[in-house]
Amino acid sequence: MHQIFPPDAAAPDIGPVVGDREATEPAVAALAGLYAYPDTSERGAPWVRANMIASADGAATINGRSGQLSGPADRLVFTVLRSLADVILVGAGTARAEKYRPVQEHEIWKELREGRAPTPPIAVVTRKLDLDLDGPLVAGGARGARTIVLTTEAAQADRRAAAAARAGVVVAGKDSVQPGAAIGALAARGYQNILVEGGPALLRQITDAGLLDELCLTFSPVLEGGTAGRILAAPEAAGPGRGRTGAAAWHGSATRLTLAHVLEDRGSLLCRYLRAAG
Ligand SMILES: NC(=O)c1ccc[n+]([C@@H]2O[C@H](COP(=O)([O-])OP(=O)(O)OC[C@H]3O[C@@H](n4cnc5c(N)ncnc54)[C@H](OP(=O)(O)O)[C@@H]3O)[C@@H](O)[C@H]2O)c1
Questions:
Q1: Residues 228 and 57: beta-carbon distance below 8 Å
Q2: Domain count of the chain?
Q3: Rounded CA gap, 204 and 59, in Å?
Q4: Which of 255, 258, 261, 262 has the alpha carbon at shortest distance from 274?
Q5: Which phi and psi angles does 69 have, rounded to 5°?
Q6: Could you tell me the CATH number of the domain that includes residue 162?
């Protein structure tokens, strides 16, 4: 894997991304530097980073999941970003589709977690609490990394109580979890470095709320060519106009980004964007 933007002649080759853990350690150290969270002590708000993947034609899934889009470099960056995070925030749709469970120590890099719990907890956002409350995701969080369930007043009281017996439960909205309340609840628990792993519905709301600071996006060298959605879910109410493609035009505001770096490995482009100032 190597850095292709910014075109810095002094940028060291990041190193091999396959092989045993020992062979990968130099790449992990280089990636940890490239993806270090900024110091948030002065700004009084956590840093919200999302990590997503898309095909070259913009699809967020192939056959309903993201796994077929991924490759060795994306998988390595995924583990480094998890290792750097204080908490991983995910929508229940993704947790169900991708069969989420608590992060395991062997899946991440312990040298990047000095002074913190061995693994970051998963925080899952759900309106209905339509999750297996006895399954590993809700009930299986390790000590210091118990799963956090961010839900609503609309969730059935008995399911909320059952979830609270197995995980941390935060009610962060009436009918819908408010993104600001969710992020605020995580910050109140001391989690400043937040990693959002999607999915598209949750990421859209976080972006619309102006809370996204950074997007790590891998472009995979593959064309999906089907009906898969994009990394941000379509707005519920698009504008009345229709473009040349026949799709309803969207008149909402776009979120401007600046490109911080691009890494390349076997045709995959690993981009890091920051929200543009203003
Ligand atoms: N390409 C990528 O990088 C990437 C990343 C992640 C996921 N994905 C793919 O995306 C698909 C899932 O997409 P998705 O948009 O359905 O997933 P999502 O955003 O993970 O989940 C949507 C669900 O999350 C809960 N939710 C979201 N916002 C909420 C809010 N404000 N208040 C309360 N609950 C809220 C609801 O759960 P309840 O129904 O439980 O109420 C909702 O049904 C999967 O196919 C997955 O593989 C792709």
A1: no
A2: 1
A3: 15
A4: 258
A5: -85, -20
A6: 3.40.430.10
83-111 pLDDT per residue, tens: 999 999 999 999 999 999 999 999 999 99
Q: How far is the CA of 203 from the centre of ligand 1 (A)?
A: 8
Beta carbon of 64 within 6 Å of any ligand 1 atom: yes
For residue 202, the ligand 1 atom closest to its alpha carbon is: 19
- The finding on whether 176 has its CB within 6 A of some atom of ligand 1 is yes
Given a cut of 90, is residue 239 above it in pLDDT?
no
44 located within any domain: no
Q: Residue 245: which pLDDT band, with cuts at 50, 70 and 90?
A: low
Q: Whose CA is nearest to atom 33 of ligand 1?
A: 127
In a domain, 228, yes or no: no
Task: Dump pLDDT digits (tens) for 176-232.
Answer: 999 999 999 999 999 999 999 999 999 999 999 999 999 999 999 999 999 999 999
Q: For residue 71, which of 133, 141, 18, 12 has the smallest C-alpha distance?
A: 18
Domain that holds residue 92: 85-212
* Ligand 1 lined by 163 (C-beta under 6 Å): no
9 CA distance to ligand 1 middle (Å): 40
Q: Is 205 in the pocket of ligand 1 (CB under 6 A)?
A: yes
